[in-house]
Amino acid sequence: MLIHLSSPHIHSGDSIRATMFAVILALMPAGIISVYLFGWLAVFLILLCMLGCMFTEFVALKWMGRSTAPVMDGSAALTGLFLALTLPASIPWWMALLGSVFAIGLGKQVYGGLGYNPFNPALSARIILLVSFPLQMTTWLIPMHLGVSAIDLYDFSSAWQLFVFGANALPHALDAITMASPLGHVKTEWSQGIGVSEALRAYDYSYLDAFIGREAGSLGETSALALLIGGIYLLARHTITWHIPFSFIATVAVLAAIASMVDPNHYTPPLFHILAGGLILCAFFMATDPVSSPVTPMGQIVFGIGCGIITWCIRTWGGYPEGAMFSVVLMNCAVPLIDHYCRPTVYGKRGSES
Amino acid sequence: MIKSFLNKLGFASARFAGGITPDMCKWTESSAIEDCPLPPLFIVPIKQHIGQACTPLVQIGDLVLRGQKIAKSEGYLSVPIHAPTSGKVIKIEEHAIPHPSGMGLTSIFIEPDGKDVRDTSLIPMDNWQAIDPAELRERVRLCGITGLGGAAFPTFIKLLKDKRNPIETVILNGVECEPFLTNDHRLMLEHSDEIMHGLQIIMHMVGAKKAIIAIEDNKSDAVNAMQQAVSSTGNDAISVASLPTRYPQGGEKQLIESLTGKQVPAGKLPMHIGVLCQNVGTVKAIDDAVMLGHAITDRIITVSGDAAPKPANMRVRLGTPMRFIYAQCGLENFDGIQILHGGPMMGERMRHPDIPVIKSSTGLLAIRDTRMKAVHQVEDPCIRCGHCSEVCPISLVPNLLADHCRNDQLEKAADYDLFDCIECGACSYVCPSHIPLVHYFRYGKGQTAQVRREQSFAEASRLRSESRDARLQREKDEKAAKRRKVRDTLRSESVLNPDNNSAPKSTTKTEGKE
Amino acid sequence: MEQLLYATLSLGAFALIAGIVLAIASKVFHIEGDPLSDKIDALLPQTQCGQCGFPGCRPYANAVAGGEADVNHCVPGGERTMLSIADLMGVEPKALEEEESVPVVAFVREDECIGCTLCIKACPVDAIIGAPKQYHTVVADHCTGCVLCLEPCPVDCIDMIQKPELLEHWSWPLPDTERAQLGAERRESHHD
Fold first, then answer.
1. Which of A15, B176, B285, C46 is the 20 to 30 A CA-CA neighbour of B242?
2. Interface test with A, best of B20, B338, B384, B388 (most A CBs within 10 A)
3. In terms of CA atoms, which chain C residue is nearest residue A5?
4. ipTM given for this complex
5. Which chain B residues touch A347 with a CB distance below 8 Å?
6. Same domain for B26 and B140?
7. What DSSP line would sit under C106-139, residue for residue?
């Protein structure tokens, strides 16, 4: 038997597993913040989603008669972590589990597994959940640090009770433990004719709190600081490049700046847009998901700009308060096209090709 | 520190696009060049360069001298082959050559007589300044010099003094960006004066106004040595450039981009932008050819790798079997060891060590199986991380290109600039999924070449078949015309002579038969 | 009821307009291309071997273009030719009827040749040279390996030999999936 081995005969040592675990590591700060905000509930949700995704992957691979080795490569665990971080803390456990099955089953394995999914699996599952269960997916628990919540999530047993039996089993009314997210609040207020600055004042909004993450929202999306730490780690490790996060966030900022200059009472300011909702999470972690984003630097910038435009449009005019994840999934559709047209100019062909 | 951090973030300071910074493993950089002894048997393949193979000039039993021409070049893109030492030709037959296919080529087997007597028919050209460049160029061709950096392109072709494409700058390539290899490094340290002299000969030959000696900054002693050699000549048209270490800076086109910021247009050669690029080893060989009249019979080879007990830089006669060279470095048992011919990035794996070294042999590596297996893992699916396109020095999109090659979409692959790939291996090196991208590109290139060959053969066959059909038709027509003529004559005769009407009948009969 | 009528009418009108536009476009932008049989002929290997059951490549191309023959009859073209014809015709690829064989060329054992010229007459591409009562020789570079010369030879002095593999024509195969088995292969090559 002849085995033809082509050069090169050395390798950088990088692997899929190393890449996946680096991203998981980069999400740890956000995970810690989520535990700070939502106590044991965050731990339960994250573990449930990660294990749910890995189990689904195992079953899917077994069913297709393929090797089950990829279960441990970290990609399913990462999808689970991603999914958990985009869910509201109060979501019933079975919904989160359903989301995990959707993410791996419908978002990844039906397309052929790792590397072939056109959409970000976690985000597609998140969108399926949002469309299927709009109420539960937009109900935000009051974070623990505000001290006004009627339930102590740092207490294992009460958190467990909430997790297993849901909010309706609690002695309190649901209103006593939930509040609106800043984006949702501003949108609702505007629909009742109340301007941006007034709405924010009523919400007791502070940029510093939003930056650190002390606000209502999904588990992992609230803290810009924690996400930036993880994002910078990934940039330094060269797992992601600056193109998508920068162009994504910059586009939202520019659009918001222009709009809020035109009518500051209607349109929220750029910094609010950047810190609110899942923008930073999406820009640094979701949009940069290698499988479903463009390959070339030029394509990545186009992709980021597209994400930014769609995000801002949905937030401003759309039916949902948050549009970051919709924008990523929508732009995922355009990736093959972007890849085809945004190829870099090959050496020596500058200006020569038609 | 800051620079390397910026490099990591993707702001490369070297000016050619992409590139990687592998672990250089230059273990032999401080070992002086040793002379490899004469092996008991030389195996000299009749082709050691890019281009047409040579025709043997000697017969079995002939006695040859070192440097004697033993195979003459055929065609333009070819240089002659010389005997590596004095001795007797004992056989001429096919033998494995350093080629990834493992296939063989006609080789001349020479048994050395141990006297190592040199052929002195080529007289030194001490007064090269006064000699016509064309004559010097012929000398370079006669001495069988090819690019010694690994590509083995016949050197004399590049040394053409052409009025339409005047050479402005000569770039001396001492970059040596391949890991492990230190042969050029040692050459620059130990033979800086000869290199300097050779460079001036080249500048005279092509009429260049300036020259740049390019060396990567991980060889600071070589930078100093060459700088000293430059200042001792007092020629201020020559400068030494220390470049940041980055693979594949030693690639001709990449080096030109790093030094001049200019790109060689696609389908053109460096001379079209007024640049001539030569490897330092080649320049030393040119100096030997001109000043001493020596044909190329040896070269410096780095023997290294994690399985080589005594890594070394060696001056090895061309045609020495690899097994003999490894033995000089203490390696005799090849169990569990893979042999590489060339550096680890672009070198090829040899199936066994009984293969001779040739003009393009830059290094011989011995790598343990375990290490090779860790590199050549079974590929995982592409996760489209884009690292391959980041490091590609010619800005391809390797993962998409590899998909087209794998699926035999050859036209699409060509559209994705498959034929601009220089096979440097940077993409495969960084791929987290261990996809052998370069392998797919080579497959795609080979398939395309084969399809083109088949098409042109089919086209030729079609033409031959059509011309045959046309010929047969013509012959048939001619026959019919002849027959008609005969019939007409007969008929006119029968009109004249109505009694005789048998002839026309017989003609009709034959026609009916057909 | 009225709504249904409007819907049907508007859709019908739209379909009609679209149909007219398409009809005009197909006339205006009509591209005069090679006839189909020319395109198929260009894909065939031109061995003129007749193994497809037609007397040469052009007749087979005509038959495929006319729908009289399947796309999988070209033996020397192999799978690649079959796939490209199927692609051109827009039909499902079909499995080849015969195994692909290694490329061969004819070779005349000259000492046995009686110089009858029958093989010269049979060769569809004029790849055999020679005159009556002289040895005949196959020009290997021109031979398509069609084997049409074997049958007419009265003394059976023609062999089909494997085309020599040229170093310059060697090309990389696809990467092996059993790349992990390095040592075994090396030991194997060591023994021979």
1. B285
2. B384
3. C175
4. 0.88
5. 17, 253, 257, 263-264, 266, 393-395, 420
6. yes
7. EEE-TTT-----HHHHH-TT--EE--TTS--EE-
Report the run of H or E that residue B92 belongs to, with start and end. Answer: strand B87-96
B13 pLDDT band, cuts 50/70/90, is very low
CATH of the domain at B191: 3.40.50.11540
pLDDT band at B205 (very low <50, low <70, confident <90, very high): very high
* Whole-number Å distance between alpha carbons of A235 and A238: 5
Helix H or strand E encompassing B259: helix B252-260
Cβ atoms of residues B150 and B362 within 8 Å: yes
Contact at CB, A6 and C184, closer than 8 angstroms: no
Give a yes or no: residue B298 inside a domain: no
State how far the Cα of B41 lies from the Cα of B38, in Å rounded to an integer: 8
When CB atoms are compared, the residue of B103, B105, B443 closest to C174 is B443
* Contacts with B514 (C-beta within 8 Å, 6 or more apart), sequence order: none
Is B197 domain-assigned?
Answer: yes
Cβ-Cβ contacts under 8 Å between A and C: the total is 21
Same structural domain, B216 and B133: yes
Q: Do residues B142 and B262 share a domain?
A: yes
**Alpha carbon distance A10, A3 (integer Å):** 17
Within-domain flag for B309: no
Contact A3 C172 (CB under 8 A): no
- Whether residues B19 and B47 share a domain: the answer is no
Determine, yes or no, domain membership for B119. Answer: no
**Same domain (yes/no): B197, B55:** no
- Does C44 lie at the interface with B, CB-CB under 8 angstroms? yes
3-state SS of B192-208 is HHHHHHHHHHHHHHHCC
Q: Residue B496 belongs to what domain range?
A: 463-513
Is there a single domain that holds both residue B250 and residue B159? yes
Taking the CA of residue B253 as centre, how many other CA atoms within 13 Å lie in the half-sphere pointing to its CB?
24
How do residues B442-457 score in pLDDT, each as one tens digit? 999 999 999 899 889 8
Contact flag C46-B440 (C-beta cutoff 8 Å): no
CA dihedral A318, A320, A322, A324 (to 10 degrees): -60
What is the overall mean pLDDT for chain B? 89
Asked if residue B61 and residue B25 are part of one domain, the reply reads no
Partners of chain B (3+ Cβ pairs below 8 A): A, C
CA distance C109 to chain B (A): 24
Tally of domains within chain B = 4
CB B174 within 8 A of CB B241: no
Would you give the distance in Å from CA B177 to the centre of its chain?
17
Cβ-defined contact of A3 to C188 (cutoff 8 Å)? no
Are residues A295 and B393, on separate chains, in Cβ contact within 8 Å?
Answer: no
pLDDT in tens, A191-232: 888 888 888 888 878 888 888 888 888 888 888 999 999 999
Cα A120 from chain centre? 10
Domains of chain C: 36-89 (1.10.15.40), 102-164 (3.30.70.20)
Q: Report the range of poorest mean pLDDT among A72-76, A188-192, B428-432, B459-463.
A: A188-192
| pLDDT greater than 50 at residue B102 | yes
Q: Does C188 touch chain B (CB under 8 A)?
A: no
Q: Does the beta-carbon distance from C181 to A3 stay under 8 Å?
A: yes
If asked whether residues B403 and B509 sit together in one domain, one would say no
Nearest CB among B352, B439, B468 relative to C190 is that of: B352
String of DSSP letters for B367-379:
EEHHHHHHHSPPP
pLDDT band at residue B255 under the 50/70/90 scheme? very high
C177, C181, C182, C185, best to mutate vs chain A, most A CBs in 10 Å: C185
- How far apart CA C161 and CA A5 sit, in angstroms, is 30
Domain ranges of chain A: 15-178, 182-215+240-340
